[in-house]
User: Fold this.
Amino acid sequence: MSLLLTRKFAQYSLNLTVKMATETPKQPSSDMAAFRKVFDKARHIVVLTGAGVSAESGVPTFRGAGGLWRKWRAQDLATPWAFQDNPSLVWEFYHYRREVMGSKNPNKAHEAIANCEKRLAKQGRRVVVVTQNIDELHKRAGSENIMELHGNLFTTRCTKCGHIEKNHDSPICEALRGKGEPDPTAEDARISPELLPRCKQEGCGAMTRPHVVWFGENLNEALLDSAQKELDLCDLCLVVGTSSVVYPAAMFAPQVANRGVPVAEFNIEPTSVTNSFGFHFTGPCGSTLPEALAPTESEPK
Ligand code: BJW
Ligand code: ZN
Assistant:
């Protein structure tokens, strides 16, 4: 974690402890008209997204019903130790998710965010998406200011030379062709490392890995610092479809709320941080976001 971020995290934890000890939590408002007044005035909006924003596209989340971590153990599939121990299984998991994405498209929530960015840009206002998702659906919807905190499903990184490369091949390698869901119990079905995706840099040829951030790994420092700057400067933050349990992303919106900036959460249910925010809109974000971000007469031209 960068020094700046470590300091922010310590400060955030301290503030939160003091807040919890001294304040009765307030219920966030679900008054859309009140939100719209705040939205109309905002010049710099950060949209922090998680798996829930892609749920209505048919992409599974991690922790809810049908979530990936309900079916598989994160420690078997999304840690550097899992990859070291069984790269075949980890590649099967990411190959499976790449193939699933082939039939998925951005939904109304992605589109509302992308359209909002374009429209507000013409008014000299900034919208930036800070996403934990690796599925590229924000990009496919037309968002341009995107920070992918946890990496990208369609990018590989060489385990030896570090070469990073975009890769949309289907399948990503012949040995994975036709492989379905990963099966952590199928020890004898392991693909040998030589047959897993390899680096295409001349003279390298080492095994590549998905360019994503696993548990126990640091997020890209430069990216984190850029995200932190956006969060420090924004005058409105939307938190969409995230359980806000995974750090450091989980502390971003509460941090913004802590400096008195309005934060609106869009989720099908309350989360553990809902009461730190001014607004909470319950429901599928494919319905709530288009309403919240739609152009209106009151909007500055
Ligand atoms: C809808 C909806 C609809 C559904 N409309 N809403 C204490 C302090 C700091 C760090 C730690 C700590 N304790 C442990 C840590 C380390 C760890 C961590 O945070 N663990 C927690 C579980 C406690 N963090 C890390 O290791 C991170 N690195 C790090 O901190 O480095 C420094 C460090 C290292 C070691 C120790 C200490 C410090 C890295 C985190 C990497 C996360 N990686 C994953 C997988 C890789 C990417 C991939 O394969 O896709 O990222 S895990 C998974 O969780 C994925 C997601 O991006 C991430 C967040 O999940 P998300 O998006 O919130 O999804 P869900 O399913 O949880 O929630 C969906 C939400 O949508 C729900 O709320 C639904 O209600 C809602 N929803 N349908 C609106 N239609
Ligand atoms: Zn290489």
